[in-house]
Amino acid sequence: MLRTKIFNEISNIKKIGLKIQKLNEILSQAPNNIKALEELGTIYHYSGQDIEAIDIYEKLKKLEPKNIDIRGFLGYLYYEINNLEKAIDEFNFILDIAPDSPFVSFLLGNAYSRAGLVVDAVNAYEFAIFLDFDMYSAHLDFAKKYEDMGRINRALKEYKAAYEIDVKDKKILEKIKTLEGMK
């Protein structure tokens, strides 16, 4: 579920501003509407407004403190803004409740890696692999998501990570060259 939420395509909403206005109208009448808050937070993230998305997801966390999808998306948002300590806390919270979550283990590995905690990163990645997680596909999914969002540097990093896993994939190499030409 968390993976679906992170890779949800918002780009098909033609008028994002109008959708945000509609959601805010709903929330003015029902400020604790979980569905509207989640949708608004996701739209903010997709629009590159991660701080606003975090504010919403922190509210959601207070409303549903044990909801692992909310906590997972919040951890991912903290990872996006490089608040690795909070990201790691959220991912570990989820793994305490649902230890067999390979995608969360992968995200935790990414956060540990970015924080320079190599041994912890390797342990998290190994556990994700043990749970039969496909890291190659995850990197490609993130790359496509970032590319759709216009975050070319982030997309490039993810394509390069996927290419390091499978150096035989010439399509990825071409994609990397194309994106590097856009910088």
From TrEMBL:
It comes from the Bacteria. Keywords: TPR repeat. TPR repeats lie at residues 34-67, 68-101. One of its GO terms (biological process) is negative regulation of DNA-templated transcription. This is Tetratricopeptide repeat protein.
